[in-house]
Amino acid sequence: MTYNLSKIRGKTAYTTREISELLKVNRKTILRWLKEGLLLLAPNKTPKLVMGYDLKAFIQAKRDSRRVKLNWNEFYCLKCKKAVLAKRGSEHTEKTGKNIGLENREQEIIYAKCKGCSTPVARFI
Ligand SMILES: [Zn+2]
Predict the structure, then answer these.
(1) Is residue 16 domain-shared with residue 1, that is, in the same domain?
(2) I want to staple 96 with a disulfide (CB 3.0 to 4.6 A). Which of 17, 55, 107, 122 is the partner?
(3) 63 and 77 part of one domain
(4) 35 CA to centre of ligand 1 in angstroms
């Protein structure tokens, strides 16, 4: 997927609704991005706000991560900008609610924390 990053202004704080309208992604996807390491301006406040430059950096890093080959036990850390291992005991698996492939199997995602810097990382199974 390609998102039009030129619509995002760096020094503007966006709500998840604004991001979903701007980038034409559904809000479930944005909530998943938050679990994958997209930074919130103030983690404990509502509405959830994301700074434009954090959003751009996150999407850019997601793009870069696709060029990195990962082993089965590795994750791409957006902060370390490389393949990393998960912190022991930090991994948990969730279903995304989507079905994929010819067999129409349920898509799952593993959430974990980077062994090096504890930033949230995620990987589809
Ligand atoms: Zn890291």
Answers:
(1) yes
(2) 107
(3) no
(4) 14
CA of 47 from ligand 1 middle (Å) equals 27
Ligand 1 geometric centre to CA of 80 (Å): 4
On whether both 59 and 3 belong to a single domain, the answer is yes
Å from CA of 70 to ligand 1 middle: 14
Is the previous residue joined to 120 through a cis bond, with omega within 30 degrees of 0?
Answer: no
Q: Is the pTM of this model over 0.85?
A: no
Task: Quick: pLDDT tens for 20-59.
Answer: 999 999 999 999 999 888 989 988 888 999 999 999 989 9
Q: How many domains does the chain have?
A: 2
What integer pLDDT is reported at residue 1 of this predicted model?
A: 63
Q: Residue 117 and residue 11: Cα distance in Å, rounded?
A: 26
Distance 58 CA to ligand 1 centre (A): 13
The string of pLDDT tens digits covering residues 87-109 is 999 999 998 888 888 888 888 89
Q: How far is the CA of 102 from the centre of ligand 1 (A)?
A: 34
